[in-house]
Amino acid sequence: MPATTRPVCKAVAGFGLIALSAVLLAGCNTIAGAGQDLSSAGHDVTGGATATQQSIHRSTGAATN
Known about the structure:
Helix content is 85%, strand content 0%. The chain is mainly alpha-helical. The model has no long low-confidence stretch (mean pLDDT 82).
């Protein structure tokens, strides 16, 4: 490889590394956001189940265990 193309190759490799890092970091943020969304949905389901259980208990006098 001629000596004049080495700096170009290094620059291209460096840019590629920076671009790859940016994509990976963006992916981490997306995955973290998805995890938070799933956690929130789980809390909503739990809250709904608790409310339903309490409603059944109030209307029938049945135990909630």
